Amino acid sequence: MAPGVRDWGLVTLLEANRPTVVMPDGRRYLCHLRGRVKRDVGRIVVGDAVQIAPTDAGEAIILQVAPRRNQLLRPLVANLDGVFAVFSLNNPRGSLELLDKRLVLAHLIGCEAEIMLTKADLSQDPDERRAVVKAYRQAGYRVWDISARTGQGLDGWTAEARSGVWVMTGESGVGKSSVLQFILPDAGVASAALSRGGRGQQTTRWVRLYRVAEFWLADTPGYTALTTTIEGPQQLLGAFREWEGIDCRYADCQHRDEAGCGVIRAVAAGEVADWRHRHYRVMVDNWVRRH
Ligand SMILES: Nc1nc2c(ncn2[C@@H]2O[C@H](COP(=O)(O)OP(=O)(O)OP(=O)(O)O)[C@@H](O)[C@H]2O)c(=O)[nH]1
Ligand SMILES: [Mg+2]
Ligand SMILES: [Zn+2]
């Protein structure tokens, strides 16, 4: 039996359908999939744990894929411990609706989520930035106010002990790859200038995991079409923790348009972020399965 066959490796990249697998000792293999495995699991996903049989120089066959603990579809990555929702208020301005959707999707697959608010050095409106930071901290998220240009906030971020697999998600141009470049200057991560219209240029094409201290961090392409199907609004509520503890008339209130709803009252009074409530309603209207 070839050495390493019974070790579990990690799929760190899927480039043009060829998985790259990194073994615990750091050896790296470009892999093929056996027909039987392909039939059983459909496709390999970055984040998969696999057993391999090395064939020759740096190549191997995937023999087996471990069952996935969880999986995001956009970006496509499995076995996540945490999600960094990367968001920028300027150059380009991100969508807060997409930010809220990313946080909810992380909640639905049962992993942690933190927010990286990027491009602090370009901030045009400090009051708005403070309001956004405050709203998400109130919702229970860690918010990292950072710049990949100056390094602001990245010392604290780097000093944080993490483990497992984390992924950066966010629209094209918000600065995901730039954060990685700053943290891992020698890893060869590519980023690119914005288009003349100030938008991202879909520079990152593949999900790729990089080793950062004790954990793995994925750079990903910037997706904007985020959707899922859920059974009911209650599934979303765990991702709106700022509403916990607000009294409603109904114990099972959905906080949509019910008369006497305490959340709607708190939104009107400016005690919780109104945009998050709007986005919650968008998700209820579009994501809940109609029977
Ligand atoms: N001034 C400033 N520019 C930044 C910062 N972060 C990123 N940029 C610039 O923003 C542009 C886009 O950054 P990328 O890192 O390529 O963005 P991305 O999120 O990886 O984009 P995609 O790969 O297309 O999804 C580049 O020109 C970066 O130099 C920052 O903190 N400050
Ligand atoms: Mg990128
Ligand atoms: Zn309510």
Could you please describe the fold and organization of this structure?
- With 291 residues, this protein is of the alpha/beta class.
- It folds into three domains: 8-65, Nucleic acid-binding proteins (OB fold (Dihydrolipoamide Acetyltransferase, E2P), Beta Barrel), CATH 2.40.50.140; 71-219, Rossmann fold (3-Layer(aba) Sandwich); 234-287, Ribonucleotide Reductase Protein R1, domain 1 (Orthogonal Bundle).
- The chain has eight helices and 13 strands.
- It has helices spanning 35-41, 96-108, 126-138, 154-159, 176-183, 234-237, 262-268, 274-287; strands at residues 8-15, 18-22, 28-33, 49-54, 59-65, 71-72, 77-78, 82-88, 112-118, 142-145, 164-169, 208-212, 215-219.
- The strands form three sheets. A six-stranded mixed sheet has the order 10-9-8-11-13-12, sandwiched between helices. It has a five-stranded mixed β-barrel with strand order 1-2-3-5-4.
- Helix 2 crosses helix 8.
- The longest helix is centred in the C-terminal third of the chain and has 14 residues, at 274-287.
- It is globular, with a radius of gyration of 21 Å.
- The chain starts with 7 loop residues before the first strand and ends with a helix.
- The relative contact order is 0.13.
- The structure holds guanosine-5'-triphosphate, magnesium ion (MG) and zinc ion.
- Residues 248, 253, 255, 258, 261-263 line the site of zinc ion.
What's the helix and strand layout?
Layout: E1 8-15, E2 18-22, E3 28-33, H1 35-41, E4 49-54, E5 59-65, E6 71-72, E7 77-78, E8 82-88, H2 96-108, E9 112-118, H3 126-138, E10 142-145, H4 154-159, E11 164-169, H5 176-183, E12 208-212, E13 215-219, H6 234-237, H7 262-268, H8 274-287
Parallel strand pairs: 3-5, 8-9, 8-11, 9-10, 11-13
Antiparallel strand pairs: 1-2, 1-4, 2-3, 4-5, 6-7, 12-13
Helix pairs in contact: 2-8
The protein binds guanosine-5'-triphosphate (GTP), magnesium ion (MG) and zinc ion.
Magnesium ion (MG) is lined by residues 176-177, 191, 203-204, 219.
